[in-house]
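thought: fold this chain, then report.
action: predict
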Amino acid sequence: MSESETSSWILPASIPFTKLKARDLEECVYWLLDAMGARDLEWRTGGSGGGAPDGGRDLEATFYVPSPDGEMDPQRWWIECKGRKGTVEPDEVKSAVNNATAHGELANLVVVTNTTFSNPTRDWVKSWQAAHPRPRVRLWDHELLERLLSKHPSVVLRLFSEALSPAGLLKAAQERFWSKLEYTPAKALRTFWTARESMEIDALARFALIANEFAHGSIVDRPWGASASPAELMQTTHLAFSNLPYLYVRVSTVGVDEEPILAAFAHLIVTSLQVTSADELTTLILEAALLHDGKTFPDEVIELVLVPVLDRLAGEMQDVCTADCDRLLGSEARTLVGPEHPVQAYWRGLDPAGAPAQPDERRFLRLERHDGPCKVGFSLNKDRGCPLYELTPTATNVAAFLGVIERVSEFRLAEARAKAGAEREKRAHSAPAGA
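observation:
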């Protein structure tokens, strides 16, 4: 990625470098090291800043680098922060270097400032380094700090959100989702939607946006998948399902709610079925998500990672189709369930006992008229029931299942668009003349 691309992510003038001193500078460098992949990060001052005893360094970190034999070797870093008004002179760096030389295991000493290092300081470090190959002394000044922050906009979002351009905010949202399964505020999603025509949204960013929308409740206001071109949509679907096993493991290890992720995948399937066939989409999904080193995962692995997505999709289609069906009657929605009405729930916020405990198992009633017609057009009778309920998704019937979803979604989407068009026409006719 070019430097010009990353520099467009942040607005440097909005980062308060002149005020970035003591604890604020240490915090900035802490999160920057974290974004750069540091391990065993330790803030020596414990967050107190301002001269607390730190043993010659403010931060410690370990980076793992590949060795010639393919192993990962740990490198210990010390970081000393120098928040100043003017340039950093040699004596300030000399004290940090002298403290570091007593520790032979140290690989790198980084001295960071919010301003600049004087020329005598740089000359002294160059001369010292020529005689002492270890530790490597690195000087991070204002300019270098700015470049590093440009490469890691999630740090800027955490500390100086106003310094991010819309493109930078999007990159931060993408980074937070894929690295940590963290979601961005709804305000940022509105900013992205307004600026979407002027931003480059790749497949990684688009899936992150879709998942973020479901984390905030719905994708109705900002349909990122539907607004993409067919090629962009299929790229996003392929990329997402290629990362399905990774996301499934991350959800389990991080301990976040899996529903937004499942809803995002289900939404991608339905949206993709509007631009491709069920057979083609099945091939794409199976090749993207279920191949490893050219071999297909065993059925039990497929069941583990893919079937939860298909179950979520089945539940959504059941809720949508049953809501307007002459043949089926269901007790209530099972998947597309929203929160309680705010008026009904208002006073519960003042109940010290909290919400009543919900049972672990919910029961649903479904009645089917065997002589009733199917609006979608499936050929049904007393021996053949609704395929949305009869066909349980498994690892071996993905194509057949998606074929049912394709037919239902095409019919119901056309129906919904026709109703919406009729409503718009009705409102137009009922509007006062000249309005």
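thought: worth noting. The CA atoms of residues 341 and 348 lie 12 Å apart.
final: tokens above.
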